[in-house]
Amino acid sequence: MADPQDPRVAVYLDFDNIVISWFDRVHGRNAYSKDRQRIAENPNDPEVVERLKEAMIEVGAIIDYAASFGTLVLTRAYADWSSPVNAEYRSQLVARAVDLVQLFPAAAYAKNGADIRLAVDAVEDMFRLSDLTHVVLVAGDSDYVPLAQRCKRLGRYVIGVGVAGSTAKSLAAACDEFESYDSLPGVSRPAQKKAAPVPAEAEDETPAKTRATSRNRAKKKPVEQDAETTQLSDQDEATALLQRALRLGHDKADADEWLHSSAVKTHMRRMDPSFSEKGLGYRSFSDFLKSREQIAELEETGHERLVRLRDR
User: Fold this and answer.
1) How far is residue 36's CA from residue 23's CA, in Å, rounded to a whole number?
2) Could you report the per-residue pLDDT of 214-226, keeping only the tens digit for each?
């Protein structure tokens, strides 16, 4: 008989969503939309096979991450499994005891309705399985925000998993915890593809009128350029998040009191479930804090790690 204290986890994968998002992450924005017809018509084309191989999803990494929260009670993946893109994964998923839910698209390019079917099944499972404690949603669509909110209202701990850059921030915020697929153990990050430099000869051959037009267009759009430069990077957003968490921690405690770094990290994850020090390139939260020494003081005594805001 199962231990009543043992966390019990249900996993729901919008498989089309995660596969397409990762394909775009590896090959560039909207790459799958451009290759969709080619993949459907010539799935055995060597170039198509190679591009699909480069963007393969590590199914085991997702299942293993979900299992770290407790016993997997059920795991379902929703997709059109007749599609050559998804068919490659069937053996992997079956080997990990994943229930494959077949969805038949109404039209060649229509949405497959995975979000509706997945949401209906998840809500039904929560009422049917009263001992379910955790729900893992592997998706990135903002359509799942109401589902995440409903799961939380029904007393379940909600974990989201999505591809960086393709996941709606509203979905990450609706979860109790959110992890980027890119940062899961066992997942290799895609290499950053550099744009090919323009040869000097090609630049010289550009008509003078065209070059002048380009310069004039650039002068007419200073506002758009400023808007791009004012956007915070992921690193800057993480720094601001840390600063807010430390200030709030000091407001609750004495202004000069040291805070436990684990409590600070928990507070940061509550404010922004998508925060991950590993996703930012740090091996541990302590390394992340050390890189922010201009705003955070870190004190390590034995196994205890304390932190406080430098400018209080």
Assistant:
1) 11
2) 444 444 444 333 4
